[in-house]
User: Fold this.
Amino acid sequence: MNKHRILITRATFDEVVTDLRRNFDVEMGGDDPCLPEELRRRAARADVLMVWGDRIDAALLDAAPQLVAVCNMMVGYNNIDIAACTERGILATNTPGVLDDTTADMAWALLLAAARRVTESERWLRAGHWKGVRFAEPLGRDVHHATLGILGMGRIGRAVARRARGFDMPVIYHNRSRLDAGLERECNARHVSLEELLAESDFLSLNLPYSTDSHHLIGAKELARMKPTAIIVNTARGGIIDDAALIDALASKRIAGAGLDVFEGEPDFNRSFLALDNVALAPHMGSATFATRMAMARLAAENARAALGGERPPCLINPEAWERRRFR
Ligand code: DGY
Assistant:
């Protein structure tokens, strides 16, 4: 009997691939994304796509008539046209839960780096400017006892909040729906309006998914409401912040700084960020530890295996597609 075919669009860990190869024909891409037409060509005979943020749209789905499932190897899935998958009865899955702490650690890394001017000072040191420890340079901002604001209080937002205890920080948050009292207690966090969040946060961490609703949720108007001493951190998705507006706010010192792991149009991000000292930059690496990326790859493989075995995948995004398949 012919084995089912899995196309893994980007290079991942050998252990995961070897494991899948026991039961399936597996083709794997390289480190970098391939062009859409190349992806369509390679997907043509696949039963499952395991994808790493690649754009999966109707044209790609139509080019892959055997497709049972698209298994994102990440938690965010704004790269996948879920409605188009559902219409075609194609299951879509992601990897929730396994990267919360690692991404929260990264938010803190960027928050601390921006507050204490770590990346800017490292550039200065590497450039050979260091002649002695100066008393009044480089002065950063205290993190401890400052107010941490969190926009988006899902699993990752809550993990960011829990870490604030060690810094004795009051935590405020804004979320579409308020957390129950137990979770608020666990996170030591107080629900506020978006306006209050913007006005009161010394550090504002964005931890919400990208969607048409969150597109440019933070633009010039919102940045103008923040304290001039505030620092904004984004480990969620590019496009939630209007990057041009943020660049203006940073250049004019309308806000004090930023720590960014994600950008609009990445990897072709707005190069004006590079001219600014008051921003710590990272290339979308919030979940990039060995253990976490391994857990993400394994969970995506588990979703793929379930879909090919006719079982409901554990991290199904579109249950309607599952219902369609069942009653076909
Ligand atoms: C995710 O899982 O959505 C992350 O952005 C990948 O690092």
User: Anything to note?
Assistant: The chain is about 35% helix and 15% strand. The radius of gyration is 22 Å.
